[in-house]
Amino acid sequence: MKIYGVTGWKNSGKTGLMERLIAEFSARGFSVSSIKHAHHTVDVDHPGKDSYRHRVAGAQEVVLATQSRIAIMQELRGTDEPSLQDLLQRLSPVDLVLIEGYKRDRHPKIECRRSETAQTLIAVDDPTIRAIASDGPVETNRPVFDLNDTVAIADYISTELNLGA
Question: How confident is the model at residue 98 (pLDDT cuts 50, 70, 90)?
Fold first, then answer.
């Protein structure tokens, strides 16, 4: 599996770009999975539902299966968060895994930047960031793409990963 990341500071456009890239690569015929890192607690389960009740009762893992989707919830219960590499090993094989976040991991990435946030570039100190996607001018020695030019960004990622060759 080939992997590529989309990173940046909060409100930089990461999720929107991820969504568009997933759609673009899927439309090109590639199988795509994604991993998103969050710094806050999220819950995909809701109080009162059977799967929630199983989890609260103490289950380490709860698998919720339907005709259209499978969700696997794993409680860490004080253990360390799994590494990105551990999570990648759990995925079914696909052509491309797009990763949102994990800005300090060592996979190739494109950094999102919005002018209004005025955040410093992560790329300055991170050689794994290969390009910048921005809504305005950026001073860098890396390729810069318009944040909304999904096709050009997907072409760049395809070339970087030698996808489809």
Answer: very high
Pick the CATH number of 2-42+80-161 from 3.40.50.300, 1.20.1560.10, 3.30.565.10, 3.40.50.12160: 3.40.50.300
Q: How would you class 28 by CB atoms within 10 Å of its CB: exposed for 0-12, middle for 13-18, buried for 19 or more?
A: middle
Amino acid sitting at position 17: L
Whole-model pTM: value is: 0.89
pLDDT digits (tens, 9 = 90+) for 17-60: 999 999 999 999 999 999 998 766 667 778 888 888 898 888 88
User: Contact, 150 vs 19, CB < 8 A?
Assistant: no
Nearest-10 crossing angle of helices 14-27, 150-161: 70
